[in-house]
Specification:
It is a single chain. The chain is mainly alpha-helical. It has three domains: about 30 residues, no CATH class; about 90 residues; about 160 residues, Lysozyme-like. The chain is about 60% helix and about 5% strand. It is built from twelve helices and five strands. It has a five-stranded mixed beta sheet. A hairpin with a 5-residue loop joins strand 3 and strand 4. The protein is elongated and about 140 Å long. The N and C termini lie far apart (about 110 Å). The structure holds zinc ion.
Length: about 400
């Protein structure tokens, strides 16, 4: 064992030695350390990125393959459904007593059975698979009914669907479906007015046709009501969108007498009225701009920018408002008074007219221009002005 002196001397020698040997090396290493870490870090990040990207790409391509497979499966089953529909639609032909009709049915059936799903090319668009059934059921039921379809196409689709809905040897469910398709064409905020009108006329015809089954008639009624009637709350938005270029200086009230409040049966009564008035069932030729039904709905008739025949010399600058009531025998229902008040409030606002100037002993009622009591002795100027005041209060 060395002495403490000796030990400390050895210690300092070793220290010196270690300084000479190690310090420069240590210093080099410390100098290089940041470079090494940066390099290692970059390498690790690079490798990780590569690995992660590859595994993500694998996952993504698996997902896409699965998605495409699912899409193809859906399209195939849709085509299958169309084929089944086509086959179903052949039933009346096959059941026909006439041999040549049966032959046509058989030929068409063969054509459907021979068209193979394996011919379906998943790369091509869905519509390209359409001709298989298109020529058979004559209704391209899955064609796009949105904005991309031209007005002429929409017209011809409406006519085709109406034809199916009106054909008595079609099944009720197919007639209901065809009626709903017309509703879909008319539905949509961007649908042109002419297309909506054509759809309304077609669906009204379906609703009123003598041999239309009850289920089809109900479907048709719902569709016409959804296009042609609004709640009082919705009316302000409707009238705000109407661009009116003709000069309006008066709103004139009428009553229906028939249907009255007691005989009113919902939308169908409104169609009957439209039918009776023009025989053509053409909504753009009826004599009223707005009708107020006993249940408090507002029905759209003639576009307000077009004049109607309702009050002889006052037609050109007036709006025709019709109350579904026998105004000599009945008084309006609460809902009807409320709807009338809101309708008149919004119309007066739109045309910058005042209630007190529009509804007087000389103005605002059909009886002011015509020998009868229209809109009925119970429809007084006080009643009308009170309805408008109530609507203004609730505004
Ligand atoms: Zn009248």
């Amino acid at each position: 064992m060395p002495e403490p002196n000796e030990q400390s001397e050895l210690h300092s020698c070793l220290k010196e030695l270690s300084k000479k040997l190690d310090v420069p090396r240590k210093k080099d290493l410390w100098d290089k350390l940041p470079i090494i870490t940066t390099f290692l870090g970059t390498a690790v990040i690079g490798v990780l990125t590569l690995v992660l990207t590859q595994s993500y790409q694998r996952l993504e391509s698996n997902r896409q393959e699965k998605f495409q497979a699912a899409q193809i499966a859906t399209q195939k089953s849709q085509i299958r459904i169309e084929e089944l529909k086509a086959i179903t639609s052949l039933a009346p032909l096959l059941a026909s007593k006439d041999p040549s009709t049966r032959d046509i049915g058989k030929q068409l059936l063969r054509a459907v059975s021979e068209s193979k799903l394996s011919d379906f090319d998943p790369e091509s668009s869905y519509l390209s698979a359409e001709p298989v059934t298109k020529s058979l059921i004559e209704v391209p039921a899955h064609i796009s009914l949105t904005g991309s379809t031209s007005k002429a196409q929409q017209f011809s689709l409406i006519d085709k669907f109406a034809q199916i809905a009106l054909t008595s040897n079609e099944s009720t469910s197919r007639r209901v479906e065809a009626t709903k398709e017309i509703g879909k064409i008319a539905d949509g905020a961007t649908t042109p007015r002419e297309v909506k009108e054509r759809a309304v006329n077609a669906v009204t015809t379906i609703a009123l046709s003598a041999d239309t089954p009850e289920e089809v008639r109900r479907t048709a009624s719902v569709i016409v009501a959804s296009i042609k009637s609004v709640s009082p709350e919705q009316f302000a938005a409707v009238i705000a969108k109407d661009r009116v270029t003709r000069n309006i200086s008066e709103i004139i009230l009428h009553h229906t007498v028939e249907p009255s409040i007691t005989t009113y049966k919902g939308p169908e009564s409104i169609f009957r009225m439209a039918e009776m008035q023009m025989k053509t069932r053409n909504w753009s030729k009826i004599s009223w701009h707005y009708a107020v039904s006993p249940d408090g709905m507002i029905w759209m008739g003639m576009p307000v920018n077009e004049q109607t025949s309702h009050a002889a010399k006052r037609n050109f600058d007036s709006v025709s408002v019709l109350l579904v009531i026998d105004g000599d025998k009945e008084t309006p229902t609460e809902s009807q008074k409320r709807a009338l008040g809101i309708l008149l409030r919004d119309l007066l606002n739109k045309f910058h007219l005042s209630a007190e100037e529009n509804f007087t002993d000389q103005k605002g009622f059909h009886r002011n221009y015509y020998g009868k009591t229209c809109p009925g002795n119970n429809i007084t100027k006080e009643l009308v002005i009170n309805c408008i005041k109530a609507a203004k209060r609730s505004d």
